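Thought: the user asked what Guanine nucleotide-binding protein-like 3 looks like in 3D. I have the sequence; next I should run the structure tool and report back without guessing.
Action: structure_tool
Action Input:
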Amino acid sequence: MKRPKLRKASKRLSCAKRYKIQKKVREHNKKLRKEAKKKGVSKQVKKDPGVPSSAPFKEEVLREAEQRRLQVEEKERRKQAKKEERAQKRKKEKEAASKETEPKAKKARQVKDKHCTPVIDASDVVLEVLDARDPLGCRCPQLEEAVLKSEGNKKLLLVLNKIDLVPKENVERWIKCLQQEFPVVAFKASTHIQDKSVQAKKSRIVASNEVLDRSRGAACFGNAGLTELLTSYATVNAQNQALLRVGVVGFPNVGKSSLINSMKGILACNAGVKRGITKSMQEVHIMKNVKLIDSPGIVASPSNPPVSLSLRSLQVEEGKESVLEAVRTLLKQCDNTQIMLQYNVSDFRNSLEFLSLFAKKRGYLQKGGVPNTEQAATAFLADWTGAKLSYHCKVPENISLPAYLSEAVVAEMQKGWNLDKLRTNNDETLKGVKFPNQASSITFISKGLTAGLLSISDISEEKPDAEATEGETACVQDEVTDFFSELSDSTAVSSNRIRLVSWK
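Observation:
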């Protein structure tokens, strides 16, 4: 159809018409090839006739052709040699980089450990901060033994932090259990301290006649009792020295810096969910005669059982264990029903199936809707080590004193403290904190004390038992195999049902 006022028609076609023409051409060519194949007609390949014998300068032409061929081959050979040389160079650079990072990692661990022993030596009182969700797993026997054997009649106090994440009955049992060895202080650190003091915020709330929400992270409990305890001890021992130095030690992510910030009332030390934020010693004066010393977290020894390290997510951070293996180890220590209720997922047979359900629930999907189990495992570990997940461990029925403790040492550690006032302060702290329900908290069994490294000489390339490691790997492989075999069986059953329905 000609366009108006123009002599020629437009050559533009609609897409449907153009595609139809292309399709018809393809079908036509295909039909011709089919017919030629039936008739036995084959394409004649044009051969290179070469240089005719009658051509002048035939030898020179052949020599030039041979030289061109050799030049092309030499060019390809040089190209391949350069490619191999670049590959070797990349390999050497990668090996050199890996060799450089290993000493740096070792040095970083040594720097962390260098600060733990000086903190003990410089302190008159040592506060060992414990996570109330696993108090036994947060205790370091090497640390406690070093405090007891150090000079200067040092005292050791256990601070049970994060009590708001554990049921009240469990906290009371743990306080009663740990008091048989050392004095215990119940504590709930403030996690939302910024530049302004918590006291100023509380005073503004009281002045405006608003209700103080004690369930928020800004609320702190136990700081007044602990400050009073340290002040009274400093007053009693004022004849020896005017200033009481208190060292705050413990494993990573138990709340050491948060405890100091809560007692100071302002953001004096950097704190966060990420481990290893505190890099060196830091002194903070909370009162005229009391000074707190912050320290980096204790490095866990590689000789600890893998289960014990997985409960604290220590192996994952050091790159010794994958997040999938850590989640598998954690789920073996917990009840499936409680995990289902906590994350609102259906029943699962193993860790791989749980991570698939959890990934779909959170929207961690890869291309094609495949669940990203590794991302789900990382999120689960973040919940486990952070403050989102409420879990607790059962108090052992029979606990015997460690080898480095005796009744005489326990009695010596109890001296100098107003224990009656300490119990009263703990009761007041427990009254103010909002605790989770026993039913909504995940229960697991603690694996005992966690060995730590206090000096550089303790750092060695210690590895867990090889047989145990091989057994763990075999268990993972068996679990994955069982999962896929069950999955294939269920798929076969469902396909048979589909066939039966279609036949009917």
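Thought: the tool returned a structure. Summarizing for the user.
Final Answer: Structure for Guanine nucleotide-binding protein-like 3 predicted. The domain at 306-386+470-484 is CATH 1.10.1580 (Conserved Hypothetical Protein Ylqf; Chain: A; domain 2). Confidence is low (pLDDT under 50) at residues 209-216, 456-474, 490-504.
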